[in-house]
Amino acid sequence: MKKAMLETGIILKEFKKGKIRDIYDLDDRLLIVTTDRVSAFDVVMRQGIPDKGIVLNQLSDFWFRFIEEKGIIKNHLISTELPRGIIGVVFYDGKPFRICQEIGQKQKENLAQRIMIVKKTKVIPVEFIVRGYLAGSAWEKHKRGDWWLKKVRPNLKEGERLPFLLIQHTTKAEIGHDKDLDLRELYQVLERYFGTKEYIASRAETIMGKSFEIYKVASEYAEARGIIIADTKFEFGIDIEGNLLLVDELLTPDSSRFWLKEKWQPGKQQEGYDKQPLRDWLESTGWDKNPPPPDLPEEIIKLLAERYQEIRDRLILKTKKAEA
Ligand SMILES: Nc1ncnc2c1ncn2[C@@H]1O[C@H](COP(=O)(O)OP(=O)(O)OP(=O)(O)O)[C@@H](O)[C@H]1O
Ligand SMILES: [Mg+2]
């Protein structure tokens, strides 16, 4: 099996090391490198998924351009060209693969497929989740019955298309799990973030409106290619000029729940073309969701690698071929 890229060691100032991305500081810009790391239940696994980072980067790149072309909202992406003269160490499976002044051609090609140069922004510390179908934690809440949706639509089944789009706002927890924010709490976070009480409601409304629009056009596009976007998460930031931008990643299998339309059958858990098989396998091991996580078997790694690629092929590659 191909090796996964788990670490990058580029000789640039580190901005942040996320669970999946290594981010370097280029003053008013950032260099984001998407590794092959995979997380579940907020814990990063010890093994990576070969080429997952490449798939995520290609999908975000595609969707950022797509949403911008639709005129909905601008985003942080400046370029996907690897800056010249990158110096560093590239690690595969934890072992330094090569150490040299300027990284070799092969590593450069690999790196080039996983990077983005973006505008540095102040990220709004909220994740905006849009749901078109009832799944995951929303289904869990509905099943338990302690949720408003149960009162208005008591008979909804797992995986069913929702009668209206839902938006949910959660914290972006630095440590531990994200928590739901109600509208009042969302306003408080935005007030703190913008440092003013002025227009907070209308800013929140703008962000939520944009989130719905993105979901609508993206899911229409995906459905035409046999993919259901059951739900997805967006992040927004403000650039130095004060513009609201879509940031982070966009409509990838890490930030969304994807189902194949031909296999969709409400009333049970759907087969997910995202991290779902990993979550299911982890649940089956009885792991308590605290680090260290169990080692992933090869079949799971292979299955995930295939699913990530399948979704990418269906969403972008096959279309490009069809249009060519
Ligand atoms: N344009 C941007 N400006 C500043 N920060 C950004 C920008 N785009 C993305 N980020 C931040 O970079 C990080 C991406 O890294 P990654 O996806 O690996 O992290 P994560 O584990 O999801 O991070 P976190 O735990 O902070 O949510 C996120 O914290 C995201 O908010
Ligand atoms: Mg992230």
- As a percent range, the share of helical residues equals 25-40%
Structural class: alpha+beta
Task: Describe the largest sheet.
Answer: 7 strands, antiparallel
* Helix-strand topology string: EEEEEEHEEEHEEEHHEEHHEEEHH
Q: Determine the strand fraction and express it as a percent band.
A: 25-35%
Question: What CATH first level of the largest domain would be assigned?
Answer: Alpha Beta
Q: Count of DSSP E strands?
A: 17
Shape: globular
Under CATH, the homologous superfamily of the largest domain reads ATP-grasp fold, B domain
Q: What's the mean pLDDT score?
A: 92
Which compounds are bound in this model? adenosine-5'-triphosphate, magnesium ion
Number of domains: 2
Question: The CATH topology of the largest domain is what?
Answer: D-amino Acid Aminotransferase, Chain A, domain 1
Q: What's the alpha carbon Rg, rounded to whole Å?
A: 20 Å
Count the DSSP helices.
8
CATH architecture of the largest domain: 2-Layer Sandwich
Report low-confidence residues grouped into runs of 5 or more. Answer: 97-101
Distance from N terminus to C terminus (CA atoms, Å) equals 31 Å
Family: Belongs to the SAICAR synthetase family.
InterPro entries: SAICAR_synt/ADE2_N, SAICAR_synth, SAICAR_synthetase_CS
Enzyme class: ligase
Pathway: Purine metabolism; IMP biosynthesis via de novo pathway; 5-amino-1-(5-phospho-D-ribosyl)imidazole-4-carboxamide from 5-amino-1-(5-phospho-D-ribosyl)imidazole-4-carboxylate: step 1/2
